[in-house]
Amino acid sequence: MLYVGIDVHQNRSNACILGDDGQKVKTLEVRGHVEKLIQALRDFARRHDQPMAAAFEASLGYGPIHERLSKFCHRVVVAHPGKLRLISQCKRKHDRIDAEKLAVLLRVDLLPQVHVPKVQVRHWRKMIEFRRRAVDARTRTKNSLRSLLRSELIVKPKGVGGLWTKKGLAWLAQVELDPALAMQRDMLLDDLTHQQQRITRLTAELDRMGQRHPAVALLKTIPGVGPRTAEAFVAYIDRPERFGRSRQAGTYVGLVPCEDSSGGKQRLGHITKEGPGTLRKLLVEASWRGVKTCPRLAATFDRLVAGDPGRRKIAIVAMARRLAELMCAMMRSGEVYRQAA
């Protein structure tokens, strides 16, 4: 078996190849696109006629690289860069040295791995993140319009209704302003219209993609969980069986506290915030909706708050963690959410 550690960069990549005995067989440095290095490794494997295992750190484009290496490598490992302390915390960093360390850790099977989903799931995740950025842009535009009105001490009349309704937008477009401010207002309204159209289009496409996954409809039976939260959870969890227990889903999303316990003393800190931030945000939002609509969830939330208003944020994060664990368990079992009798 040949063990290959790869350090990938945009314009230059390094590889270190070790044999079964751990001795260095060959080092490669290829300038240009990573495809050149992959082709060089393919030719090397063909000449030596030995099974090859490869490892590289997760970065932009790790999915296609994994797929191309898998065509001729016996095993491909994508390492978690944040947990690879031998490289991330090393005082002497060099691409060639990093590649050798990856090969050594691969040989002794000590690489912290990341899950590599299929191409359809990766594209699904990208669509979810793209819509999130579009929603964030729309929020910034709305905040700019509100700020413009406040700066001129303009108050919306009571009969107009919501500011973002058709009637509210029509009123906003007719508000008398200084020409310079009126131009800003008109441009912001144009941006808002365009952003809303993009979000509508993206939402329709995500709804279509979600229909291909039965687990999305299953998770929507939970109070407070809508299509956006359900689809994000299914896309990021991908295969619930990769977690030994459903409780590990909360750890994956980063909703568990940091821990530094020693000598019989337990010290807990803020949540780790590891994993996909979009999913973590959606789980918290779904938890707020759930405690407002479901008596069972509201009772659990009140018990966690324990009469202290300062604990509401802590309690809702705990609810979000429980929600992640519940959703993972439902994906495993295929059972719908059951309300308390």
Order of helices and strands, N to C?
EEEHEHEHHHHHHHHEEHHH
Distance separating the two termini: 59 Å
- Percent of residues in helices comes to 55-70%
Q: Largest sheet, described in full?
A: 5 strands, mixed
Structural class: alpha/beta
Mean pLDDT: 92
Beta strands, count:
7
Q: Which spans of ≥5 residues are poorly predicted at pLDDT below 50?
A: none
Verbal overview:
The chain is an alpha/beta fold. It has 3 domains: 2-107, Nucleotidyltransferase, domain 5, CATH 3.30.420.40; 119-210; 214-333, no CATH class. It contains 13 helices and 7 strands. The strands form 2 sheets. The chain has a 5-stranded mixed sheet. The chain has a two-stranded antiparallel sheet with strand order 6-7. Helix 9 crosses helix 11 (277-293) and helix 11 (277-293) crosses helix 13 (312-333). The longest helix is centred in the middle third of the chain and has 33 residues, at 119-151. The model has no long low-confidence stretch (mean pLDDT 92).
